């Protein structure tokens, strides 16, 4: 093992402002939150180390060409606590999360890999229950777990079970989903209520009760995306707003496309349970994670037909238009409030509730 004192430290003085990592010489929980800290970690550590044009896409999955065939390729790791929660488990998340990452490239998932990192002492019955949940989720999503690996770490050096999944799927001809295709005038559509997964995890983890039972929205979105593409392959970009919530997804798209984004704050579908929980806890629903929703930027001429197709699908029954891409304030997301004012929706620094997936 190399002497860590001899390893080359990154040159923090060369980083551009704002650079939150300058203030964090060690990893903090926010680095895994999908916000500005995560982005800086990728931009200044991983991207320079790995390089490559494919990695530079920085989408939910990478679009690659192999033997003349266009494939989507994605990997994700799941460290959610607790392992089981209303509406799902770490096993469901591991399958649906990777299936959805592939779907955001327009691909239908075909095969997954599965890596289990088990902590010494975890009950075998718990492992079996998670594996069964994964198998059921894979069958429901129409994907096959084709290969895997298992490692065990010492007691006290894990948290029961961590899972890594990778997936591949075929991208249909004529489909090109990436934020660089967004143009002013594109309509922004969200597939349903936001913030449900994050509030569910919070309520179970912290023992909170809000008077109404709430369940995670964890679900595979491949079928919904297929229904949207059946209307037109000319969708511009899709994202599943997981870590960092809807705010992070919109900011990433605005920054990559160089357009501004305006949303109608009262038009964003926030269910009462999520709104009440966020009001009590001082959270903004726009930043709360989702696991079964997507946001789409659609050419205006196709927006009505795509919205109708989404509403005809069980996973998009509550789909609604929340805003549009604009020429003004490029790279910035702005919300128009119910009082007639505006507020800037920034990229979150970290995650309001860590380890939600």
UniProtKB/TrEMBL annotation:
<protein>
    <submittedName>
        <fullName>Hydrogenase expression/formation protein HypE</fullName>
    </submittedName>
</protein>
<dbReference type="InterPro" id="IPR016188">
    <property type="entry name" value="PurM-like_N"/>
</dbReference>
<feature type="domain" description="PurM-like C-terminal">
    <location>
        <begin position="184"/>
        <end position="329"/>
    </location>
</feature>
<dbReference type="InterPro" id="IPR011854">
    <property type="entry name" value="HypE"/>
</dbReference>
<dbReference type="InterPro" id="IPR010918">
    <property type="entry name" value="PurM-like_C_dom"/>
</dbReference>
<dbReference type="InterPro" id="IPR036921">
    <property type="entry name" value="PurM-like_N_sf"/>
</dbReference>
<comment type="similarity">
    <text>Belongs to the HypE family.</text>
</comment>
<dbReference type="Pfam" id="PF00586">
    <property type="entry name" value="AIRS"/>
</dbReference>
<feature type="domain" description="PurM-like N-terminal">
    <location>
        <begin position="60"/>
        <end position="171"/>
    </location>
</feature>
<dbReference type="Pfam" id="PF02769">
    <property type="entry name" value="AIRS_C"/>
</dbReference>
<dbReference type="InterPro" id="IPR036676">
    <property type="entry name" value="PurM-like_C_sf"/>
</dbReference>
């Amino acid at each position: 093992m190399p002497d860590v004192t001899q390893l080359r430290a990154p040159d923090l003085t060369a980083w551009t402002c704002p650079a939150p990592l300058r203030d964090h010489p060690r990893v903090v929980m926010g680095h895994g939150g999908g916000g500005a800290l995560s982005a800086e970690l990728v931009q200044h550590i991983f991207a320079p180390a790995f390089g490559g044009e494919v990695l530079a896409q920085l989408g939910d999955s990478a679009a690659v060409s192999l033997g003349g065939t266009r494939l989507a390729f994605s990997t994700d790791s799941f460290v959610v606590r607790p392992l089981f929660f209303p509406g799902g488990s770490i096993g469901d998340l591991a399958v649906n999360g990777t299936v959805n990452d592939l779907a955001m490239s327009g691909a239908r998932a075909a095969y997954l890999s599965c890596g289990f990192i088990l902590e010494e002492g975890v009950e075998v019955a718990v492992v079996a229950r998670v594996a069964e949940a994964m198998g059921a989720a894979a069958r429901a999503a129409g994907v096959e777990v084709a290969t895997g690996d298992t490692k065990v770490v010492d007691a006290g050096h894990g948290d029961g079970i961590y899972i890594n999944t990778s997936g591949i799927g075929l991208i249909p001809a004529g489909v090109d989903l990436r934020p660089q295709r967004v143009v002013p005038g594109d309509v922004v559509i969200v597939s349903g209520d936001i913030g449900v997964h994050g509030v569910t995890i919070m309520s179970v983890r912290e023992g909170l009760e809000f008077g109404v039972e709430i369940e995670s929205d964890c679900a595979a979105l491949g079928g919904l995306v297929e229904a949207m593409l059946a209307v037109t392959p000319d969708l511009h970009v899709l994202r599943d707003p997981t870590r960092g919530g809807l705010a992070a997804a919109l900011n990433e798209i605005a920054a990559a496309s160089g357009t501004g984004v305006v949303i109608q704050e009262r038009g964003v579908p926030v269910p009462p349970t999520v709104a009440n929980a966020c009001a009590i806890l001082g959270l903004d629903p726009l930043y709360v994670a989702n696991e079964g929703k997507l946001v789409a930027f659609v050419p205006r001429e196709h927006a009505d037909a795509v919205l109708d197709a989404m509403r005809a699908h069980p996973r998009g029954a509550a789909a609604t238009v929340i805003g549009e891409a604009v020429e003004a304030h490029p790279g910035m997301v702005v919300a128009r409030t119910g009082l007639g004012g505006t507020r800037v929706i920034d990229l979150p620094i970290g995650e309001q509730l860590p380890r939600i997936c």
